Amino acid sequence: MIAPNVRVTNEPFDAYREEALLIEGCRDIGAVVTFTGLCRDEAGTLVALELEHFPGMAEQEIAAVAGEALARWPLLGLTVIHRYGLIGPGEKIVLVVAAARHRGEAFQASEFLMDFLKTRAPFWKKEHRSDGAAGGWVEAKASDDAAASRWGKDTS
Amino acid sequence: MIAPNVRVTNEPFDAYREEALLIEGCRDIGAVVTFTGLCRDEAGTLVALELEHFPGMAEQEIAAVAGEALARWPLLGLTVIHRYGLIGPGEKIVLVVAAARHRGEAFQASEFLMDFLKTRAPFWKKEHRSDGAAGGWVEAKASDDAAASRWGKDTS
Amino acid sequence: MRALYFASVRERVGITEEEIDPPKSVANVAQLIDWLASRGEGYAEAFANRTAIRAAIDKNHARRDAPIASAREIAFFPPMTGG
Amino acid sequence: MRALYFASVRERVGITEEEIDPPKSVANVAQLIDWLASRGEGYAEAFANRTAIRAAIDKNHARRDAPIASAREIAFFPPMTGG
Questions:
Q1: In 10 A of CB A139, how many CB atoms?
Q2: Which residues of A touch B41 (CB under 8 A)?
Q3: Which of A47, A72, B75, C36 could form a disulfide with A130 if both were Cys (CB 3.0 to 4.6 A apart)?
Q4: What ipTM was estimated for this complex?
Q5: Number of helices (H), then strands (E), in chain C
Q6: Hey, are the CB atoms on B123 and C82 less than 8 Å from each other?
Q7: Is the pLDDT reported for residue A156 higher than 60?
Q8: In what helix (H) or strand (E) does residue A4 lie, and over which residues does it extend?
Q9: B5-129 domain in CATH 3.90.1170.40?
Q10: Stated pTM of the model
Q11: List of residues 6+ apart from C51 with CB closer than 8 A
Q12: Which domains are present in chain D?
């Protein structure tokens, strides 16, 4: 089984380079699914998102979910990067790249990663509003719990 | 509803540029799913894939599937590129980029696109073998029909 | 009408396209396939496995019972393997 | 043991972390939350909505009935909103 590449960083990441690194040298990859999560401007009301995280636990939880994905699907490459700190509209927050022989495996693994990363990895988003009003913490969504639960047994 | 960007070409494409173009200027995109299909070397036995297509119908069928995806999900961007001609191991054959506010829409639309593109778009793969033996036409897979049928009514 | 052949069908028939003029009794896709299969060895081989043949009339997928009377172009090919 | 607070919990408690020394009767996460909530206004506010509090013992998600006796570090935070 391959080792996943997991990174938690306050720097912007280069999605293209990450994908190229993952594919490079493996001529057996037939499918790559790349998920990118971006900061929306919420119709101009948002000036930035502030991503708080729990150092150490964040990396550990993402690595655990990545390990679970690798146990479920025969992946040939897996990269997960999550940013923290201040992130402006249009900037990338999270990246998942899953490579496999066939597309089904790559699609499922990357969706699985995102569903559990949402509900398990200790990150919290706070909104900074463009009108200067006090921004609030983004509320967790029940739909995210539902998305994670469709994969069967909890991975925790 | 946005217009999809559909291209059938014998040139390599720049997946990164396509994704950047799609995202550019739209601050409402929260999720981008990029699918890349690559030529595998089949454990060193394959020297190239030759992709034959039906000009005109290929573009038309991809556009029809793209239109169906746009009718089903509130996408903010959709790009589909398919190559034809001689393609070596590690080279990219097909690209789907789906952008939306939320990840579920982007994931579903890109999977839907690939499932129907596989069964509807007139492309055929022929293998060129590294041992010089006569390469055969790649057989259609029942699993591809099954993948397409899970989306409910046939889009044809 | 114009007949187009792709991939393994093209290789077996031996040409990429041709003008065909089937008799009036040939009314739909299934009948046209039967008629083409009777035209010689390459055609017989190309259309031997009827279930592995797909057809398109004027660049739209066509079922076996689709009428061909108004078709300008009809294409034959094996199941698609793109993507 | 070390207590860590994140996001809205951190803002309400007013500090990022502290050393705590709960009485022996406080045996699990639920009891520790009750004890913390009794320590003052900020704590009461931070832990008012018990169902919106998650805990981690030594960087692993912990249920309400998880024993805290051997914990070196315990963190409290709202449901995660990353990704």
A1: 11
A2: 27-28
A3: A47
A4: 0.94
A5: 3, 5
A6: yes
A7: no
A8: none
A9: yes
A10: 0.94
A11: none
A12: 2-77 (3.10.20.30)
